[in-house]
Amino acid sequence: MKIDILTLFPRMFDGFLTESIIKRAIDDKKALINIHNIRDYSTDKHKKVDDTPYGGGAGMVLMCQPIFDAVKDLSKKDTKIILMTPQGVIHNQKLAYNLKDNKHLIFICGHYEGFDERIRSIADMEISIGDFVLTGGELPSMVVVDSVVRLLDGVIEEESHEKDSFADDLLDYPTYTKPRNYEGLEVPDVLLSGHHENIEKWRQTERLIRTLERRPDLVQNKHGYFVAKDNHNKEILYMEYDKIKGFEMMPKNDAKREDVISVNKMILIKPSFVNKVIKLKIDKKMKSLYDKFNYLLTTEDEEGTAAVLDEAVRYRQFLINNYVAFLGEKYRDLILNKLQIMINELNIRQRLMGEIRENELSGKSR
Ligand SMILES: C[S@@+](CC[C@H](N)C(=O)[O-])C[C@H]1O[C@@H](n2cnc3c(N)ncnc32)[C@H](O)[C@@H]1O
Asked: pLDDT digit string (tens) for 351-360?
């Protein structure tokens, strides 16, 4: 791929082109990147490239002539001309994939107040890197070029960008490296197991959980189905349908038309995924109960003991009524037993505190 960048500040690109993966892509001839000083194209005897805005106002505006001439000089039949502007479409991974299939890109970097509006007429597209304003288009063009060049064949391993965040509407999975234990922070056991199938499943589940927790917008409000599959056995992990149209559910047996139920949301979830999410919720609740329980062991707080006892009894019943079917036998027994032990202990403490209180009262009345 050939990339030409038009700028008033070519030296801003020095580090960008001479370090890391971009440098390697250039050395390996995967990308040819040329930086052009817009001033070199000025026909003005003082090499003027900008002027004050018509109608008054702050700042200087890039003039048409040098940019029109530069683009004319550099363009070929298949060239895509990109104008960097905060008013353009916001850059994302899909656009990066789209741009990587072009043979030749020209980037125009504005500076100061911006550029003469007529420059828009020669651009094929306008790209912004986000809803904020920078002093010039140099950093934004580097951001876009970097995101495109790393996707070119042979620049980095395909596997490493295929699963990057946003590549398929999901965020990336968590990664760890040595040591196994860093100041008490452990690496998840599955990653040390050497069991590739389980590792793959764990990663796919983590991607889904992360996306649903941090960026639900990536998988919601989409038209059509969003279906996430387990890479290994192709089972559906998560599926969501268009919010507006919804689904029609036909009750079984002798359903009549009026028995059809319309629903707006239907999520099909793999049991192991449900299991994982429920376990996370249970572990969180158990931790909070344990914190309260441990605190109560250090006090004689009768009211607090009654409240936590009530909470533990209710929670145990809630698990039995709602979640038991989704949990593995071992985990289910473990949690229910832990709760029962906590309940027994709190019952004993509550009784003892009651007896002490009554003894004190009867002592006083004597
Ligand atoms: C100070 S900005 C001009 C902003 C302009 N007055 C406006 O509000 O649209 C100068 C140049 O920086 C570049 N620029 C600034 N923020 C950008 C962004 N978020 N995305 C892409 N280019 C940006 C553009 O090339 C722009 O012409």
From this structure: 999 898 888 8
Domain count of the fold of the chain: 3
Each residue's pLDDT tens digit, 222-243: 434 555 666 566 666 656 555 5
d(CA 102, CA 160): 21
Length of the chain: 366
Atom of ligand 1 nearest to the CA of 108: 25
- Choosing from 126, 164, 242, 311, the catalytic residue is 164
Tens-digit pLDDT profile for residues 242-260: 555 556 565 656 655 555 6
Give the active site residue among 10, 24, 53, 113. Answer: 113
**In testing the pocket of ligand 1, which one of 115, 125, 128, 134 has its CB within 8 Å of the most ligand atoms?**
134
- Do 185 and 126 lie in one domain? The reply is no
- Considering the candidates 4, 50, 66, 86, report the single residue annotated as catalytic: 86
Can you tell me which atom of ligand 1 is nearest the CA of 115? 27
268: left (phi over 0), alpha (psi -120 to 50) or beta: beta
**Please, which residues have CB within 8 angstroms of residue 155's CB and are 6 or more apart in sequence?**
21, 24, 25, 28, 30, 31, 149
Q: Do residue 78 and residue 138 come from a single domain?
A: yes
Residue 26 and residue 95 share a domain:
yes
> And the tokens for 4?
């030409």
**Residues 229 and 336 grouped into a single domain:** no
Structural domain range at position 36: 2-159
Q: Which atom of ligand 1 is nearest to the CA of 127?
A: 21
Instruction: Show which of 208, 238, 263 is a domain's final residue.
Output: 263
CATH number at residue 27: 3.40.1280.10
